[in-house]
């Protein structure tokens, strides 16, 4: 028997939505990787308590129950796969894969059973439906009635939002069946209740999405964002990934929290929570727990009293509570030395960070693309200018992301990075050795070492070294300052001469004028007028006989209507293509046997040759005489027109010489006053 079983296109039911992915069963346990989010669920073989096989809407399904009460449902199996799965469970997990069918009687009364995190409504021994209590967002009670409300599923067109149960009264004293029902639900439901004090509070943090300033209250099981207008409660179970990204200016830090499902505000969905910090901002933090509780709960990852940079404290607390690694940029360095690339996505400008296992763009809208979901990338020429290029990414699902307006200098660095990660580049093809070596069931966040921890250690060493130095010199070596004088070289490149000479102080205006380089006058080459080609080309005589048609054209004219009737609605271009195909398909023997179209073409050629002989003898000479007479007439008209223009110019010069006194007196008049020769002559007549 094989040690592993693999299934593609399996659907996992999570919070009412069916997420597709890949399922692998091995000796060690069960692994499911979500195709959409890249999240990996790993169930150890020792944790499995029960396996159930049943018929569901998507074929057949597998329900797994663990010893700690968790339930996992996978649908999309074929009926023929039952024997293979049953044998595998017996051999490796020592479990019987039980077959249980759902009740389809349609009754609406029965018995409710609570088992682990599942509410099961049964009729007799058969279940009718099951509700995972983690899907419940609220539970309210009334007289003999319990109402369950559910989280909204954004991926489904129609979502179940509410179910009501009628609980009949019982004769038992001291126990209210309605309250007992509600308590069983609330003990396992995903109902966020801000009971007790927060572990710590961060005040007035700048948030980019959702935009505004929020107080962040850290509770044991959820995160509470409290703003002036909106409040958000985010369970730690919905946090997928954590990112800590340095801004390009090296003075700010982004802390990004990826969420699934996203937080909602009306119709807006926020899949990412992005906080912006200044590196200079420090904080002293005291956890609202005693030292024993902190040690027991966080096992040395946090202490009761901590101090340091604000971004470091927030990321450290979040890492300990969510229990996920923080992703930071890897070895990539752009042209400017930063670990990101300035670009535009859709209408907004932002920063693209090449990571060890994907790309992330911040901040509007935030985008995270994993390497294992990329089909290919493409480097395209910029649409507006040649000084920039576009970077396109297409996923295996067909979604395309275009990051535009990237500086040309970044091309080499980005191309080398894509090559090193063995991503498929469009127009180059997937070459040998370029195949991605990613484990299809590995978490996209797993890494051999914790890059965030290494960075924190390095920063701690630098901080200790700076503390030993004098207070005056501290921070000057690591912090880069903006020096405007250093950019003079860039300005000098624009003029192809020494531009620094113009910036010298203490010289007069005349000196500056002398030192300025004289601009060379542009030499505009005179374009020679093109010779008229009309005269060189011989005009086509309408009386000349027309050329004869070929055998194919004669056949096409005869069969055109037939092709149209066989292919109704065919266009002219398609008709000609079809005719060409039919003509080619006709064999040489068939064409020679019929000989009809060749004979017709030969007759047409003889008639044309005969007509051409007659035309060259008589008609052509007459037409040439007519053309010559036309040319003579045009020449005479041009000559007479030129003589008339010369006479007009001479008469004007005579009239101007006759009255020199008037012309001298009126010569000072402006162009606005004397608009033309006619107006000035008109005024002189009036005087």
Automatic annotation (TrEMBL):
One of its GO terms (molecular function) is nucleosome binding. The keyword Glycosyltransferase does not apply. Residues 545-616 bind DNA. Residues 532-544, 637-648 have a biased composition (Basic and acidic residues). It comes from the Eukaryota. SMART domains: HMG (SM00398), Rtt106 (SM01287). Keywords: Chromosome, DNA damage, DNA repair, DNA replication, DNA-binding, Nucleus, Transcription, Transcription regulation. Residues 545-616 form the HMG box domain. InterPro entries: HMG_box_dom, HMG_box_dom_sf, PH-like_dom_sf, RTT106/SPT16-like_middle_dom, RTT106/SSRP1_HistChap/FACT, SSRP1-like_PH1, SSRP1/POB3, SSRP1/POB3_N. Residues 517-531 have a biased composition (Basic residues). GO terms for biological process: DNA repair; DNA replication; regulation of chromatin organization. Residues 458-551, 585-604, 612-687 are annotated as: Disordered. Residues 474-496 have a biased composition (Acidic residues). It is found in: Nucleus, Nucleolus; Nucleus; Chromosome. The keyword Endoplasmic reticulum does not apply. SUPFAM superfamilies: HMG-box, PH domain-like. GO terms for cellular component: FACT complex; nucleolus. It holds the Pfam family HMG_box. Residues 497-507, 650-667, 676-687 have a biased composition (Low complexity). Component of the FACT complex, a general chromatin factor that acts to reorganize nucleosomes. The FACT complex is involved in multiple processes that require DNA as a template such as mRNA elongation, DNA replication and DNA repair. During transcription elongation the FACT complex acts as a histone chaperone that both destabilizes and restores nucleosomal structure. Belongs to the SSRP1 family. This is FACT complex subunit SSRP1. It comes from Uria aalge (Common mure). The lineage of its organism: Eukaryota, Metazoa, Chordata, Craniata, Vertebrata. The gene is Ssrp1.
